[in-house]
Specification:
Bound molecules: zinc ion
CATH topology: TIM Barrel
Shape: globular
Low-confidence stretches: none
Number of domains: 1
Strand content: 5-15%
Mean pLDDT: 92
Distance between the termini: 26 Å
CATH architecture: Alpha-Beta Barrel
Helix content: 40-55%
């Protein structure tokens, strides 16, 4: 192979054979908790003003905070790292030209991703200076707000709001910048449409080839309803067969349902995938106000059940999970061995 494997793969893979790896919790709900206003988002209040001009309101553009409030984002990463996270996700869920078009900030995509990776790296280096434990930056790649395989127009089922190539190019720019900023892994997450994920995988491989590096890819789908399918209609097993060609570092599920409802789908995946599994559910289902009520001990107890059943290699939290959730999860799964891959069991 002409590409050299990134240095961290071996160390991370070795640790994954010894214990369950811990991911961080949710960035979005932590940011909501800061109660920031428009001036905070643009940096014209207390932060660093954004150099990219736009007339559109920016409140809610959480990814912009990596540029305008880097200390706040660094603190969230640091708190998750100290709580026990081995892998921390960059604040780049919506840092593609497609998602940033809602805010008129397509031109900021390069800076958003480079700086987000650097902010995460700084936080992890501070944590490692304290306790000596190595930690890894996962460049987070979200699904965008458009789907390539479904029509948003019920009267025109053949219509598509975005093409595979639109997505591929947008993801390629994002992933290139994440690599430049120092990401150790690429995490393609919250996948509701497998075609979008395939565009992201393609883009990641293109970026690796262009930059002469190969980072581990983590792939995480989301089951959006009780029938146990993704929004584009796949079961967990079908989803795995659609992404296996990427030879991912891990495959799993995140977001949408809390741990309780996710369990049968993780059990199905754990039975079929020949790589590491990863689960990071929300803190239960959102209440009538869109908030998550499940406390750290409750989420942790359920995920300890996953671990006891041998379903887990990597675990963390999604919407509503705090550093306290991650600390509780890390403690709760610590007594259990990681899921064994079949080839290891045979050896
Ligand atoms: Zn979520």
């Amino acid at each position: 192979m002409s590409l050299h494997d990134h240095h961290c793969v071996n160390a991370l893979s070795a640790t994954a054979r010894e214990r369950i790896l811990i991911m961080d919790g949710a960035m979005g709900t932590m940011i909501q908790g800061l109660g920031l206003g428009e001036d905070d988002y643009t940096g014209h209040g207390t932060g660093m003003p954004c150099a990219h001009a736009t007339d559109l309101p920016q409140k809610g553009n959480n990814d912009l905070l990596s540029l305008t409030q880097p200390q706040a984002i660094e603190q969230i990463h640091y708190d998750f790292a100290i709580a026990g996270a081995d892998i921390v996700e960059t604040n780049t869920f919506s840092s593609t030209a497609i998602a940033q078009a809602d805010y008129g900030l397509e031109a900021a995509v390069h800076d958003l991703n480079v700086e987000a990776a650097r902010v995460a790296r700084r936080a992890l280096d501070r944590a490692t200076a304290l306790d000596g434990k190595p930690r890894y930056v996962a460049g987070a790649v979200g699904p965008t707000n458009r789907t390539a395989s479904l029509s948003p127009d019920v009267s025109n089922p053949g219509y598509r709001a975005v093409t595979f190539d639109d997505l591929r190019l947008a993801y390629r720019d994002q992933i290139r910048a994440l690599i430049m900023g120092g990401a150790d892994l690429i995490l393609i997450e919250t996948i509701f449409d497998t075609l979008n994920a395939k565009a992201a995988i393609f883009a990641a491989i293109e970026a690796f080839q262009a930059q002469g590096i190969r980072l581990p890819i983590m792939i995480s789908g989301t089951i959006t309803d009780a029938s146990g399918r993704t929004l584009s209609g796949q079961t967990p097993t079908a989803f795995w067969h659609s992404v296996a060609h990427a030879r991912p570092f891990s495959v799993g599920l995140n977001c949408a349902l809390g741990a309780g409802a996710m369990r049968p789908h993780m059990a199905e995946l754990a039975g079929v995938v020949d790589t590491l599994t990863c689960a990071y559910p929300n803190a239960g289902l959102p209440n009538a106000f869109g908030q998550y009520d499940e406390g750290p001990e409750e989420t942790a107890a359920q995920l300890a059940g996953f671990a006891q059943e041998g379903l887990l290699n990597v675990v963390g939290g999604c919407c509503g999970t705090t550093p306290e959730h991650i600390r509780a999860i890390a403690e709760a799964v610590a007594p259990f061995a990681p899921r064994q891959l079949e080839k290891e069991q045979a050896a």
